Every structure is written in C-alpha cells, then in structure tokens.
Amino acid sequence: MRIQDRLGAVLGGKWRLESILGRGGTSTVYAASHVRDRSRAAVKVLNPELSANPGMLKVLLAEARLVAAIEHPGTVKVLDDGFADDGCAYLAFELLVGQTLEEVRQSQGGRVPLEDMMRIGDAVMDALAAVHAAGVVHRDLKPHNIFVLEGGGVKILDFGLAKQRGYTADAAQDVFGTPSFMPPEQSLGLTKKIDAQSDVWSLGATLFTCLSGLPVHTAKDVNAMMLASRSARPRSLADAAPELSTKLVAVVDRAIAYHKAERWPDMKTMRAAWQEAHPHWLPTLPPPRFDADPDFLDPSAVEPVFTRTQKRSMFDPRELLDDSQAVPRARHPGALPNATANVSRGPEPARRVMLVAAAVLAALFVAAIVLLVVAAR
Fold first, then answer.
1. What is the rounded distance in angstroms from the CA atom of residue 194 to the CA atom of residue 192?
2. 12 or 170, which is more confident?
3. Does the annotation mark 140 as catalytic?
4. Annotated catalytic residue: which of 81, 122, 140, 170?
5. Domains, the chain, with CATH or none
C-alpha cells in the first residue's frame, strides 16, 4: 500500500489517518484521530518491508518500552500500539503542535537567539536528566529530535536508537546515529562505551550548532565527518561564535570533549553550569520567541579555524574542510594597515657596528678639542 493510500484508513479499528506529518527511511508519521472519542495522535507506521522483519519490530516495540519507562513531561507519551490490516506495525504518540529545534534554527537563518537557546537548552537538560535517571540513553540527540512546543516547553523525540540498562533498541551492534552529532565512541562503534556522557556530547554538539550555525566538525562529506568524529578533537565554540561569553563557551566545550573523562559527568552538573554561565534569563520556559537574529553570520562566509594550541590528531583536520564553502576571511573594515609592511628593517649588523664605532670616535675627537681649548686658557 502506498503512503498516500493510507489516508482515511483506520488502523487497528481505532485511529483514522488524516494527513502525513513526515516520513523517514523506516516509517511514516501520520496525524490521526480516534474513531470513538476524536482524541488526536501522531501515528508512526513502520514500512511494509520492515514490518516483516522481526528485528525491526523489536526496535519499534523497544521504543515504546523505553519511552514508557520515563516519567517526565519532556518526553512524548505512547498512547497505543498495534498492527494495521496489512500487517504493518504502528505506534500512536501524543500529537504535538510546534516546531522541531532544527526548523526553529532554519527559520532564524541558522542560529537560535541566545536568550531562547538558554531556555530551550535548560529544558532539554532537565528532560535528559530524567531520561538518564530511568537508565535510558537516547543515542540520537540532535536538533531534529527536539520539539519546541507552541505553548511553551520542549519534548525529546525518537527513542528508536535508545538503549536501557541491559537492553538495546537496535538489534545489531553497528554504527547508528547522525555523524554531525555523534560522539567519538559511537562513531567508532564502541557500543558498550555509549552511556549518558555520550548524550552529553550530542547535546553539546546541538548547542554548538544552534548557537553558531555551524557543525562541530566541518567536512566534505559524511565519510569525512565520521572520520573527524572518530579521531579529531572538536574545535572550540569560540572559533565559530567568538561573540559568546567565555563561561558559555566553556560549558559547551567541556560537553564536546573528545575523551569522556573530560566531559561533564552527568546532565545535572552540566545544567547547573549552563544556568550559571548566562544568569540573565528566567529558569522557566514561557512560549518561545524566535525573533530575527541581527547578528546572524552566514555559515558560508566562515572559514573554520584550527589554532596552534590544539593538540594534533591522527591527521590534519584541515584535510576535511569543505573547500567549496571555505572562503578567505574578510578583513575588518576598521583594521589598521600592516605596520610592518613598509618599514625598513634598518642596516645590516656589520654596518651597524661600523656606525657605532664612528660615532664613538667622533665623540672622543670633540672631547679632545674641548680639553685643548680649556688648557690654552
């Protein structure tokens, strides 16, 4: 059955599919209403070819199980699960009204205003602290999986790659996730090393991108991005957004540290530092404002900077730069001309010695003349 053909159909005798909210490689999400009480829901329907795969069914059911283990308003609630008449499995979630954080970012030209990002970031950290307390690791945290509600608040979406203590949603032990927001241990396929600190890294990368408009690693393609994630130390947020405060930069930089021992130990500690870094905002989350950001800098005009103080990686990170986007750094209009450009370097050392000697002899000659004049009187 084609995706459009499902519109108007009733799944499991309960949910009437009304419109398509989105589709991905494994499933399609529909807006639906209950045939009895007209309650609204978002229904995720697994693609037909995958519904016949026991492993993919395990993933879908695992998502429902993991989300049900978390009691926090920042996670999406599962309302129902079952099978359509053609055998496709589905999950019914609460229907959300608003935008994903990625949609918010794009609507602002690539960067989310700082005051809004402070509130959103705080709410996400609060929700993730509850997720981790339930023993769940998200493993695919990114702007696309954070939903900003129209009436205020946020929701964390898509626990399809999540894992719980002693249980993993994906049946295979391959590399899953999104390269731009994937911590080193995950990109290396070290499944047993993935834990709450891996989510700390992914959230740090999310904050990095939303505040600067740029990814942590800039690479030519997905493979180069994976290579950078595996072996290159992340650049500082200050390189991509130098106007941000040093305290705020320090919070994000520590979150995306290459080695887990150098990251924030948990989400609660990171949240406390986040609140302290920029105290000029209220800890509550009113309806988000997304006004135009006058300080937006076009990412295509930014050339990633690798300072001399950065430790060397296994390779030169500049080899991964997207040459099609990198352009020469523009000179500040108020910059002074190079003071050393037209300045003479002075006489050579040997000539300098001769001049000094001549000056000394001349001084001695003048002194001798003065003494002779005084003696003659």
1. 6
2. 12
3. yes
4. 140
5. 4-94 (3.30.200.20), 98-320 (1.10.510.10)
